[in-house]
Each structure stands twice: as C-alpha cells, then as structure tokens.
C-alpha cells in the first residue's frame, strides 16, 4: 500500500520544501533590511527582462545542467558525487590541451574534439574515487572532496608552470585559436536577422546541454545500462541476485558522471573565457548538487532547476549591482534548497504521510 | 535504584496474563498466558514466526502490548523501555549480540551501568564482580580482551555477564545456541544450570527440541501467535512437542501425479562453505535432483539453506571460501568467479527467499521487475536501447497468466500485496522454463489463494520434466510438494525421507538436530572446530 | 637551513595548525558518536565572522569568542536536526551548512559593515594577544632550549594553548569518563547503548554540540587570533584539511595532534618556500598544499594503515525490533 499518492511524493513534497527554502530566503532578505518583493523584481528584471539578461541566465544554466546531470547519474547508482567541481576543472584542462595542441581550422571540428578532451579528463578524475569505492570501500564522498582540492592544486601548477605563455604574469593559458571560438547565441540570432543578447556569453553549448539532458534521460530510463544502474542504486543485493556487478556499475556510473561534469568546460572554458584561467568552475560543481536535488534527479527536472539557478545567478548579480544585497544571497538560497530538499526531506515528508494516512482512514 | 516490585512470597518470577500484540493485520501474540516459577529454566518453543520473539520484546520494553498484564515477582508492572525492564531485574541476551566490537569485555559490561562520571571505579568494581561471577558460574572471559577477538561463545558469555552485572534475576536468552558449536552449547547449559541453582529464573527461546529436553524444567509451546501448551519437561517427549509445535494444521493438498524422475539435473558433492567471518555455514552437502522431481529441503531458518541457494544461484557471499563440486546436467559449474547471469544462461531459475530485498526492486514497476535478471535477453533489446514495448508485452502476458492483481504492469512492486509480488517473481522465473528451479520460501507472507496458485505452478514445472529445489521453513509446504524431503540442520543434511513415509514428529526431530529414536547424547553432531577461533 | 629558520618555520606551523587541530577534534567528537560532519568548514567560517563582528562591536576578544561559539553552535543545531531528529542525509546536510555559512557571513557582513564581506580591522583588546610565558626572556640565551622556549613555545595566543590542552583533555574524556565510553559506543553500535537504556539521541546531540563549541573556538582564533578581522571565505578549505587530518589520525586524539602538525608544517613550508629545492627535484608549493589530500586518499585506500571509520558513522539510528 502506498503511504501517499504518487503526485504528493513527486511534486507536493519537493514543492513544499522549495517554498520553505524560499520563504526563509525572503526572511533573510528582510533581515538585512531589504524588501523581498523589490529584490525579486530586480532579479526578474535583470535576468529575464531583457535578452541581455537571458543571455547570461542561459549561460549559467548551461553550466548547471552539466554539473546537475553529473550528480544525477551518480545518484541513480546510489553514489553521492560531490567532486563535480574538480571534474569540471579537469575537463577545462582537457579542453585547453586539445584546443592548444592543434591549430583548429573551424569550430565545428574543434567542438567534438574538445568535448572528447573535456569528457575524458573529467571521467578520469572520477575514475580513481570510483575504483577506490568499488574495490577498497573508500567512502566516495570523502575521496571526491579530496580530489576537488587536488585538482585545484594541479591546475594551479599547470597554469603557472606549464601552460602560461612566456612573458605573461597571468596564471592562465594562451588564448585558443580564433577559428575554434564557439558561436555565441547572439551571433546565431543575428544570422536569422534578430538582435538578441548582445555581449552575452551564452553559446552553442546550451544546445549541447539540452541534448545531454535527453541523452541522460535515454541512458537512465531507456537503456540496459541505465536499468542496471538504477537497480544497483536501489538495492545492491538485488543487483547481485540479478547478475549485475557492483564494481562495474560503480565505475561506469562514475565515469559517466565525471564526463558530464567535465563537459561543462565546453561552455565556460571554450565558449566563454576562450582560454583556461584559474578557478574557471566558480562553484558550479557544487551548485550541481542543489540542481540535482531540486530536479529530483530527473534530467528534465535538472533542466528546469538549472534554469532556475541560472536565473538566480544572473538575478543575484543584478541585485548586487543595483542594490546593497551582495550576490552571496544566491549561495544562501542554494544552501537552503539543499538543506530542505535534501537533508530535511523527512521533516516535510513525515507529517505529509501522516496527513494522507489520516485522510485515507477517514474515508475507509 | 530499586523500582523492583516487592516479591510476594512464593509468587512466580514472571506471570503474563492475556498479552496480545498486533502489527497491522498480523496478530503476532494472541491472548498469551504464561507463568514462569522462580528458580527454573523455562523453555519456549515454536516454529519461525510463532511469536516467541515478539513476546520477549514486550517483556524487554521494545513493544507495548495492545492488551494484557505483566507481573514480575507477583507485582504488576508497566514496562515502558529497556531501562524499566533492567530495573525490574530482567536481562536479555539477544540472538544478535548488542556488543561494541572494539571495546573490551569490561567496557561492554559497564556500558550504561557505570557507577559515576569516571570510569576507573566502575571498571575496578566490574573487574572484581566479573572475577566472582566467573568462578561462581563458569563464566570465564578475559576482562581485557576486545570483543572482536573473542569467539561467538565467549561473546555470548559477555552478554550474560552484562545482565548479571545489572543484577538480573530473570535472564531471557533468544535462540542462544544458534551460533554456537555443540561444545560451546554444552558449556552454556552448564552455566545456565548453575544460574538456576543460585535461584535465577531463565527463559530459553529455541526451536531445538534437544535443548528443551536436555535443560528445561518446564516448556511452553507457541504456534501462530498462541500459547498452545505449557507442560513439565519431564512429562513430555520430543515427538509430542514436535507435534504440538507443528500442529495438526489443515493439510495443504496439491493434486499431483506420482513423479517420473529422469536423468540427474543437479548433483552436489561435498559442498562446504566458510563465510567471510570464518563461520562454517555448510559442512559437506550432498544432493541429487533428477528431472521431473521436487526435492524439498526442510529445516528451521538459519541452518545453511540460504547459503546453499545463493551458491547454486551463482552469487555466494563475498569473501566466502567454497569447496566441493556442483554439476548441472552433468557439466561441472564453477564454484567462484561466476555470477547469477551465467547461472541463468546455464538454465537455472531462482526465486529467492527474500523477494523484497533480492527478488524485486521495490521501486521498479511490475513490468521492469518481470525483466529483472533477464534484462539482457536478446528479445528485450532494441539496438542501443531496451525494447520497452517487448518487455511490457511480455510482462502483461505473464501478469495475466499468473493472475497478478491489480493487473497493472505500471504499478511499482512495493504497491502490490505480498502474494502478488511473489507471483511476479515466480512468473518471471518459471515462465523461462529453467532446467532447474531454485525456490526459497515460495509462500512466505502470501495469502491462501496465491499459495495454491504458486504450488500448482511448481508441480506443473515438475511435470514438464524440470528439476525443482524447494527450500521452505513451512513443513506443510514441503510435505505437500516434495517428491523427496531432505532435512537441513547446522549446515548439513540430517536425513532424507519420502513424504508419504515421514511423520511430522519424525521430521520435527530431524529439524531440531535429533535423530529420531536415538537417545539425545548420541544424536549430538560431532563437535566441529569452534566458529571463529578464540 | 639554519636553526633560527627552522624555529621560525616550526613556529609558523604551530600557528597554522591550531585551527586545524581544533576543527579536527571537533569532528572527532561528532564522528566518534556516529554523526559524519563535512560541515566543519561552514561552522568555522560562521564562528570566525561572529567572533570578529562581536569583538569589533564590544572591543572584547572574549565576547567575540563567545559569539563565535554561538555561531558555530547554531550551525550544529541545524546539523543535529537534519542528521539526528529527521534522520536525513548527514553528508547533504554538511554541504548545505558550508554554503549557508559561506553566504550568510558575506550577507550579514555587508549589511552591518558595508565592506564587501570584511569586518573592520581589529586591534587592541578586540584581538587575542600573544602571551609571553614566564622566564621566556631570561631563558633566551640558553643554547638550543632557550630559543625553542622563547620563540616556539612562548608567544602564542591563549587559544593556541587551549587547542593543545584539548588533546589530552579529549583523550581523557574519551577514554576515562562515562560520557566518553557512551560516546564511542554510540558511534560503533548504537543498539548497544539503546538496549542498555541510554538515549542515543541525547548522546549524539551532545557530541554535535561539543563539535560546535570547538569549531567556534577554531573560527574565533582565525578571525581574532591569527588575523585581525574577518575576510570573506577566510577558512579557505581548512575545514576540509581538518577532516582529512581526522581520517589521517584514524579518529584518535593524539594522532590528530600529529596529523594537524604535519599538515600545518606543510602549509608553513609552502608559504616559506614557494618552490622547495631539494637538490634533485624542485617541489612546487602547489604540491605541498595538495599533499594533505593526497595522503588522506592513500590512507583511505587502505594501502598503508587502513582508516576504518566508526562503524555506525553516517547512519541515522532506527530502533530495530
């Protein structure tokens, strides 16, 4: 017997959690002496009120789609990949190496190659924690945290000592070849004779991200591997009974997860910065956790949650520009979303279940 | 400190009046009366699920009874939690010990019963107390040894010491010999007798008749949540107890023609298994099953049946050591390095004992579960993706043929009743027409209608010339379905019987580790090395 | 390297290891009780901000310390609520706490001080001053021992001595008191505590609260001891290094002292020698800063001295029948 109807489980519970998170965010805004409605107005205006705002919103959302999908795939295998930050950083290194190694004649050639570089580097960075988890039982959460820091140190070293062009003081790689620059959404709109999102970083990667959502959906819910990943994530003993190898699934799921996180670099490194800089990921790997939790670990939920967080990011930036509210407000909202939809899930769920049980009893 | 009720002179140590406890629709205890006289060893015997453990959990404050009254030493008492039980002088030795593995014996003994904020005085007192108890009751344990370094038998002594340190007058032991070697069990009984002679009251929950006969003064028999008899041990016999325990239930009838066994399908020779913890779970199993017959394995849960099924199913416990030979249709199967997938391909179907943990993914829909384990079958593939239409069609057909209700393949497995969940698993495994079907507890938690249906399917598979290995703790089921019956006890086959020649008393004795018709002393299996060396 | 240089590096290591040691011991209490805590970073950060803000307002480092402890305790309360009462995922809760502190400190700081997340610089009694131990000057001329006493042992803030005193104290509490026995038991096998009639919930909340207090001291030391005020993200990953040290120390107090000293020393060396020339190879500072994490992964992998966490760690306790 169901404790509560499916719609309550899938929609009502997360919705209440979200409302709680945003209500407390509003209280925080009140506490620092600003009006939540005014703040919301500024954010909506700044993020969605113009094509300029949209250009940034979509750019941020693209990052979060990739890192959110990375958390999602690992989650379905029962693994908490907190290492998206490091995997995305290593993906950036992969992109830079590919793009600097060959004088690419055209972006359409460079993009697939860079994607391979990003995915491979991200996946390899997830491989060691995955292998240690599967074979040695080392807790994947701790190892992926450690690997975030190791990646940061490694990148720092590579940028300062190896990739930095001669004579430059900036710890950053050389600029990528001109021909390898990805088309911005604004250029694409212009090709259709539209003025849209001038001077915004949103680029063709957004479409890659949307396709990635679709592919992850196919992987998780339509493929045999996805079936095995989900079965393993729900019940390890069941998986063993069915002949599914825990080691194989752990490693493969983490490879895919790391590759997805790495692919984010197409957007921020290749699409926006057009060179590799220090701390290019800027916390997007961690936002992926919030995005996945909020999107209920479903690729389409992730897409929506990523758009919401893209909006929050751009809106938060605008807020900082026009009011005295710093953009760290977004970090607080992000924390509250993680807290309520993730850690305090039972706080909402348990009373709801009791209500539905009582309702059912009343009817019976 | 002394919330202990005043002992009324001559009053029984424990008296239960009309205790009832239900979990949802399941009535675990029905109107139970029990009187345990002071200074006696009282056995409570019954099959799996008879309600023994529930009753004892009520005594220890884990559950509150729905109705009824508890009297300790003649005075009524309400047991809210374990704290109350401890104060009332009740000590409990659980089947699964509640010890901290990396603590010393002393630390475990004083945990929760310390004298003050500092440990030193408590430890010193406990050391003295342990020394006294050790000499008094043969309860020798090195007080400074780590629990994880102790044998299971010694760990159990620590549990007993814990209770005695808390000045328990009443000691409850739940299946205490399940994990012990015969030698260790004998030592335990000496301890228990010593405690009784000092005036302690002991309740021994067990399913082993030998133990009841050997050590108890009185015995109560539970069956299906009810207390069906309380007798003096000296005035009863193992066969009478076995019959009381198993009961004269409505016989399950399955219409079946005599078996016509063909060529051997499964041959097992000298199968031994030592699990990762070093406990020998299988001690040399020999089995033969021919095409067109059902071999039923009877026995109380925990005597190695689960391990046998897992090994035959291709997924022995991680870290286990295996020895022996398994042949399927004459071809040797690898003992290790194989997996369940390879075993299915070789023609072995498996309905696991626990459908909720292994047989089904409870959050998956029914149609996804019908493909579980066979999800890489070629007919379920569609290029890179799974052919969901094919799987759904297959599932719908099986759901219809097995009359799964509601016949909705989209519903998650967890939302079906137990019987319908089991039908999904059985449908999946039987419809593949395996040469050998392993089936564990086919009807546990399944309603009558579904039981009948599942039984018919098992017989139909046999009549189609397939081999069936049936493991069940339900003796009725074994008797109704099997063409031959093997009884497992303590990791070995105690004996084989033909169903029409076996009596319940006879099988009950085998299940309890006693060769029928032999005096108990000779029936003790030879002592093996202690499980988990001290 | 001459003797004064070595002394200077060691002195710097002692200063740098202090917050690590406090946070590491904080994590030790929590995790030994079976509550995993990857939110040490956030607790310390919140404490650092609260300490700096109150120390500035009251011009008292001690009131700042109290505020720091309260700030970290508030974060602990959230963690306890999620991890113990609502049996939520302890790791997710830790992640949330880190972000919450990271955002709230800047938000509040901007509101109160308007300095982009910084607090004004602290001076005088708003900071913990360095204590000169008795006879430090008198003993200085004594060869070897004199400078060690005067430079290395003397001349730290009171919080440094508190941190070092916490090591034997923690050991004593853990292994010599009733509370410690129960705390360790509840992290290994909560059922053993429960069946003995002791409340698992109360014990775990107690442990989480102690964790908050120690993180509070660590944060206060960062803002009012080692530096003069709060700066955005000033913990800079120290909570995670402390976590690494805890694993490295296998959840034992004296080993925690060793692990945090090692990690503090690595940081001191990296600060002093951006490129450490060992003759054959030059070790870049980035390698030194990554070394704590690399060492921890190696320990976790169990190739050298496997680290086994408390057995019941990370699992909410559900009474079984």
From TrEMBL, chain A:
- Which cellular components does GO assign to this protein? plasma membrane
Question: What's the protein called, per UniProt?
Answer: ABC transporter permease
Against PANTHER family, the record matches this protein to: ABC TRANSPORTER, PERMEASE PROTEIN, GUANOSINE ABC TRANSPORTER PERMEASE PROTEIN NUPP
InterPro entries given in the database record? ABC_transp_permease
Q: How does it sit in the membrane?
A: Multi-pass membrane protein
Transmembrane helix among keywords: yes
A Pfam family (short name) is: BPD_transp_2
TM segments?
Answer: 12-32, 52-75, 87-104, 110-128, 140-160, 202-220, 240-264, 276-295, 302-323, 329-348
| The organism of origin for this protein | Paracoccus litorisediminis
Show the GO MF annotations: transmembrane transporter activity
List where in the cell it is found: Cell membrane
The protein's UniProt keywords, in alphabetical order, are: Cell membrane, Membrane, Transmembrane, Transmembrane helix
Automatic annotation (TrEMBL), chain B:
Q: How is the protein disposed in the membrane?
A: Peripheral membrane protein
Give an example GO cellular component term for this record.
plasma membrane
Per the record's keyword annotation, is Membrane included, yes or no? yes
Positions of the ABC transporter domain: 14-249, 266-515
Q: What is its main location?
A: membrane
| PROSITE patterns named in the record | ABC_TRANSPORTER_1 (PS00211), ABC_TRANSPORTER_2 (PS50893)
Q: Origin, by domain of life?
A: Bacteria
What compartments host this protein?
Cell membrane
- UniProt key word Cytoplasm: no
Query: Care to name a GO molecular-function term for this sequence?
Result: ATP binding
InterPro entries with a match to the protein in the record: AAA+_ATPase, ABC_carbohydrate_import_ATPase, ABC_transporter-like_ATP-bd, ABC_transporter-like_CS, P-loop_NTPase
Q: Which UniProt keywords apply?
A: ATP-binding, Cell membrane, Membrane, Nucleotide-binding, Repeat, Sugar transport, Translocase, Transport
Q: Which PANTHER family match?
A: CARBOHYDRATE TRANSPORT ATP-BINDING PROTEIN MG119-RELATED, GUANOSINE IMPORT ATP-BINDING PROTEIN NUPO
Q: From the Swiss-Prot or TrEMBL record, give the protein name.
A: ATP-binding cassette domain-containing protein
Automatic annotation (TrEMBL), chain C:
Origin: domain of life = Bacteria
An annotated Gene Ontology molecular function: transmembrane transporter activity
Instruction: Cite the Pfam families for this sequence.
Output: BPD_transp_2
Bilayer topology annotation = Multi-pass membrane protein
GO cellular component, alphabetical, reads: plasma membrane
Predominant location category? membrane
Give the UniProt subcellular location, in the record's own words.
Cell membrane
InterPro entries per record: ABC_transp_permease
Transmembrane spans: 6-28, 35-56, 91-113, 158-175, 207-231, 251-270, 290-308
Keywords of this entry: Cell membrane, Membrane, Transmembrane, Transmembrane helix
What is the protein name stated in its UniProt record? ABC transporter permease
Species per Swiss-Prot/TrEMBL record: Paracoccus litorisediminis
Q: What is the lineage of its organism?
A: Bacteria, Pseudomonadati, Pseudomonadota, Alphaproteobacteria, Rhodobacterales
